[in-house]
Every structure is written in C-alpha cells, then in structure tokens.
Amino acid sequence: MGQGADGAGQGPHSGRDHCGRTGRRALGRIRAGHAAWPGAEQDSGHGAQLPHPGRGQQIRRRPVAPCPPARRPVALGPALPRLEAGLSTAAAKGPARQLLLLGAGHAHVQVLAQMAQAPWTGAQITLIAPYDRQLYSGMVPGFVAGHYALDDCVIPLQPLVQRSGIRWLQRSVSALDAQAQTVQLDDGSVLHYDWLSINTGPVQNRALIEQSLPGAREHALFIRPIEAFGALWPQVVQMGQSRALRIAVVGAGAAGMELAMAMRHCLPGAAITLLCGDVPLGAGYNAGVQAKLRAALLKRKITLLPDSAAGLRSGEILLASGASLACDVPVLTVGAQAPAWLQPSGLALDAQGFVAVDACQRSTSHAQVFAAGDVSSRVDRTLARSGVYAVRAGPALATNLAATLAGQLLLEHQPPQHTLNLISCGDHFAIASWGEHSAQGRWVWWLKDWIDRRFLARYRL
C-alpha cells in the first residue's frame, strides 16, 4: 500500500456514525451475494491487475531436459506448425495422455486460441475453470467508472472451447498432488494428468484476511473473485443513486488507486477515501508517475488517509492509529495470496507460496508442470505480479505445452525489462509508465482503450 497526506474535498469521516438501515440491508445483500459465488473462499479467478499486451519479448529454444546455455532467438509463429505436426505423429503412437489446464487466465486464453486455430491431437486436453467467461481485468476500472458494460469486458470461453475440441469442466480446484499427478475438484472427483498447466491467478483468502483484519469476512466487498465483484458492483451503484455513500478503498496499489478514481467518476456525490498505509503512494513506479498519481487522486477529491485498516464493523473501519472511519462500503483490494491448495501440493514454491518456474514457465521441481501469470514466480529474474506479464507469457506457454506433448524443444521466454503500464483515472484520462518515463492525458486513455478492446477482439470467436 502507499502513503499520502489528507486530500482536498471530502475529508475522512471519523467517529462511529453507522450507516442507515437501508444501507445496511442493501450492503448485506451485496455481501451475501458475494459469498455465494464459486471460489469466494478460494477462487481461481484472476487478480485485478491491469494487463496491457505488447511486443518485444525474446524467445529462445530450450530442451525439455535441464537446459544448457540458450541458443539463438526464434519466433513463436513459425515454430507452431512444426510442433502441431509433431503432435499428430505422437497421437498415432498410442492412447492420448492427459493435459490439464487449471484456470482460464490471460495466458490460458491464448493457449485456447492456439488450439482453436489448429486443434492439438497429442493428448486429451481438459480445461478446469468455474466461470463461463473471462472478465478481462484491464477493463474492470472502466466498467466501474461506467465507460463499459460488463459484457464489453469479457471473453466468452464456450466458443474457444468448442473450436479447440477440448473437454471443459466448470469446477474449481480443491487439491493438487504433484507426486501422484492428480488434481481434486470441488465436487470430490479426482483427475490424473500427464502434464499440467496452472493459470489461476491469486486469490483473496477470506480466512487468512480475517485473521489480520477482523470483520472483513462479514463486512468487506472483496475484488476477488473478480467475476463476483463485477456482478455485485451494480448493486453499489444502485445504493449510491438514493443516498451519498461513504466508500473506503483499503489498499493503495495500482488496483486500489484505479478503482478509487473510477468510483469517483461513477458516483460523483460519494465520499471516497483511499487508505494508503505507510508505504509511498505508487511505490514501484518512478517519481514522475508517483507525482502524477497523487495529483490525479487529489484533483478528483479522493481523500488520502495515511493509515491502515485494523478491523471492520458495521458502518465503520477501525484504523491502526486507534481512530475509526465511517464507511458504508469498504472495498478490499489488498491480501492477494496464492491458492491454498498449492501449499501442500509438493510443487516448489517461492516464499509467498506461488509456483516457482524457470525461463520456460516450467516448474523447477516437476518437469511435467507449467505455470504462468500471477500464480507463478520466475526464479531466474524478478517480475512484477501483473497481468502485463501474464499476457506476454501466453504465446510462449502455448508453444512450450505443444512442444512438450510432441517431445520437442522448449522455448525460453524473456519478457522485456520495461513494460508499458497504463493507469486509468476514472474519466477519459490516464497515466502512462515506461521504465523511468511517464506521460498523461486523454490520449493515454484512448490508447489504453484501443489496446484493451483489441486484446478482447482477438479472442472473441
């Protein structure tokens, strides 16, 4: 989380002023609906990071066995026909083995698109994903602001699945045993795999968050599963049409800042507070971006409160300083963890519990397991846990899965050092960050809108 001084406009609402009965009943319905969504305790959706696909990653051939020094760069496109030919040959040698795809994140959507163009025949492939569409996280702030309808922000999975010819189980994962090579689903069924690819994204573990933030489970509006948040946000908007809401966004990362400004655009009469904690606002971005973010938040009358949430009660947030903040809708953007089923899985994990992978997006402990996106952690270099890298890893993951099934060489995926990050500011205005460079303006928002719409159009069949 970031830190900031109190801003102009609406100040923090201290004291213990509880919300009215109508607000409590309406927010209670929102929370009840949130808890009813699949994966509310352990979702397999994607985080609310903001991906923007781009070009420039380097790909190098790597063997399936432990990798020797990398060889010459190659393009992904020319490699795929050769891999697909290898898959057809492998299929003729005996019964198809099992490839499981866990989750339908940004990388797996690109894998499905590759299969839809030329179905793979070297294995029986099963997608395990609970939702019938992927809500593209890059457009969620625009949806919250009112620029997009929810249907504008989704990639339907059914057309991709039908075109690719694979099996699809609309279930969530409850357990993984890497030694036995089995996955247990939430209905108790157990599937064996020969190869496994994980692209489920981080989760907001209610039980863990409740330990550090008592009352969150009952009173907070979580942003994950992102599909549940997308379905419940219109109820908040409806509440805001009849009364001036007091909204507090807990967590001042990129997602928290974007959502706070989006909520301001959607609900101009609301009092919106961003709890920033004790870390610089926009930490991780260069000084120019940090200054632009602070100015954008203050211009939109977002109150920046340099305090942290210590607990939640009906109508208020208890602060670490001992004070309290009156609040009708506490929106929780912090607490992204790895899925709980990874911890006992036997896979090598990083210190935060995410799957440790090499430059080929392959598990460092189990060569038949791959992972990409926020659920993975590269051991050879430090990458931000962002949808930007999930999008960039998609083509390499597709090629490496096809290569593994065909017994061919893997490709090393080396994304560029700097990536383009576009941060929307609620209205038709955005901030761009590229390494040590920054820019802002309406043109940045239109660029972001064009990139996001182009990405969705590419995978809508």
Automatic annotation (TrEMBL):
Gene3D superfamilies referenced in this protein's UniProt entry, alphabetically: 3.50.50.100
Keyword annotations from UniProtKB, A to Z: FAD, Flavoprotein, Oxidoreductase
Protein origin, superkingdom: Bacteria
GO molecular-function terms, A-Z: NAD(P)H dehydrogenase (quinone) activity
GO BP field: aerobic electron transport chain
Positions of the UniProt region annotated as Disordered: 1-22, 37-75
Transmembrane residue ranges: none
Listed name of the protein: Pyridine nucleotide-disulfide oxidoreductase
Phylogenetic classification of the source organism: Bacteria, Pseudomonadati, Pseudomonadota, Betaproteobacteria, Burkholderiales
